[in-house]
Amino acid sequence: MKIVLDTEGVLMNMLDAIKKRDPRFVPRGVTDYGFKTPGYGIPREDVFRYLSEKRTFELEQPYKGAKEGVNQLQALGTVIGWTTVPEDVVELRRHQLYKLGIRKFSIHSGDKPIIKDADVVIDDSPEELEKYKDKDCIRIIIDRYYNREYKDAIRCKNVLEAAQTVKKIMKTLKKV
């Protein structure tokens, strides 16, 4: 089984890294994926600037349970770290994923490509999951303030819960 696992918003906490850079930033105020609605404490332009700077990626920390979730997913199949980062961050991201136990990567500085033979896709972005809508795979969205309106995937609190969900689904499929 091939499990495609997004990084930001799933494994790594980018919003808290932005808060470390600018204490005025309010992660819970982010209610849409494109930072279009006000309420996060700093100008939208500043958010996008932080999202493009290597320093922000250096400050990112894994979400609680990320390593354990990765370990459980690896017991089920091949886990591929899947992300888009600025070009000067690719090696840093590879190192961060490696520390989490992920040895296969699909790291890009442009759009994320579709992994055609994915069996499971785990992401926090409705837009990315929509790309897999017509594929024969399990789609899981990690619950965040900014994606609560999206209803077309299995919703999990974190990657650890996602791993447990995939495990249950696989057990059910084996019984059929």
Percent in helix: 25-40%
Which structural category do the helix and sheet elements fall into? alpha/beta
Strand content: 15-25%
Strand line-up across the major sheet: 3-2-1-4-5-6
**DSSP helix count?**
7
Major sheet description: 6 strands, parallel
The N- and C-terminal alpha carbons lie at a distance of 17 Å
Rg from Cα: 16 Å
| SSE pattern, N- to C-terminal | EHHHHEHEEHEEH
Overall mean pLDDT stands at 93
Q: Tally of extended strands?
A: 6
> Could you name the ranges where pLDDT drops below 50 across 5 or more consecutive residues?
none
Give the overall shape, derived from the CA principal axes.
Answer: globular
Describe the structure.
The protein has 176 residues and is α/β, with parallel strands linked by helices. The chain has helices at residues 14-21, 44-51, 54-59, 66-74, 90-99, 126-130, 159-175; strands spanning 2-6, 78-84, 104-108, 120-123, 138-142, 154-156. The chain has a 6-stranded parallel beta sheet with strand order 3-2-1-4-5-6. It starts with a strand and ends with a helix. The relative contact order is 0.19.
List the helices and strands and how they pair.
Elements: E1 2-6, H1 14-21, H2 44-51, H3 54-59, H4 66-74, E2 78-84, H5 90-99, E3 104-108, E4 120-123, H6 126-130, E5 138-142, E6 154-156, H7 159-175
Parallel strand pairs: 1-2, 1-4, 2-3, 4-5, 5-6
Task: State the main characteristics.
single chain; 176 residues; alpha/beta; 6-stranded parallel β-sheet; 16% strand; globular
